[in-house]
Prior knowledge:
three-stranded antiparallel sheet; 17 helices
Amino acid sequence: MSPLAAQRAADARLLDECRERAIRLLTDNLAPEGILAARPTARAVSRGYDAVFARDAAVCAIGMALSGDARLEREAATGLVTLARHQAPNGQIPKFVDSARAEADFWYLGCIDATLWWLIALAVLDRLQPQRRLRRRFSAPIERAILWLRCQEHQRFFLLQQNEASDWADIMPRSGFVLYSNALWHLVKRLYRLPGAAQTRAHANLLFHPFDGPLAPYRRAQLLADYARQNARNRGLYLSFVNFTAFGDEGDVFGNLLAVLCGLADRAAARRVLRELERAGVNDPYPVRAVCDPIPARSRLWRPYMARHRQNYAWQYHNGGIWPFVGAFWVAALAQAGERETARRDLVRLARANALGDWDFNEWLHGRSAARRGMSGQSWNAAAFLIAYRALESRTAVFGRAAHRAAARI
């Protein structure tokens, strides 16, 4: 056997083991209320990780439905059901449900992406498991959730508005119109055939990448886009957020990957984004860092709360840490773009990241040293790996055909 063939065989064995370990971890983290965010160790319980988090449960639901494991497939929707039971009267889905107290939490400034991820997971599961008829079963909660999101939408931009520190990057200063949330919003509109998807997509491209083409026709959009165009670094990526005379040009990796996967980016923009992210080395040594350039404490974007628990300094946590679960979305985006060899190489890197600490599936790693940080036994690391594995091995689209049809239109 040649050295190349031997390496390929070893890589294949590693991927198979990671898949098996991921299934085992998800099975161990199952609870009657749904999938817990992390292995329920004493440390995890003390930090509240023994709860059903909406965004975690949604990613896990998709991964579990794609796992090929009968028990995980059967339990995929359990956490989504728990979240629906704790939906607020106004339609908002909670950030998490404390499984011990059966108590919902909606975060300090509200949590916008919990509702988005819940809707996406229901729609994807309904496609993967049509016999369960989840959209019909939860038609009333779905209607309330969509109405709540519509109340957060700007009536001329067709983009969601949010406070800072109110999405997955919950100690980062992104606010106003945020790329990550609006990529998900565009997908929700496509999956549920809501009006205004084309307008959401058009304004997202005008505001988050204002460097090419004409300015937006709406005069208030012109002000926002022109300010960003004159002052932001144009690295080929979408800006992480745009607000009144404020913007984020740190290079939000997850937001840009979702722009590709959720159909905000056309084919040319998708290639541009993936090329720029690889040029920034976000996948080295493991996929991927959360940002291209961390926000330093001297920056105009720095907030005192970013030092909470000494967690969000440069190269740490959301501010430049390596997140294996986001790395799985990187692999899926590469596979969707037809970059299959690069996707396979980085799926192997992702398996190696999850294998650190004797398959500890750590929440995140330091962005420079790759030292293990955060909580061990992270459920969405395991589930996201299964999504990426299926995206590469069986060419399964992460979010189905809706996003791909949207991406091909421009």
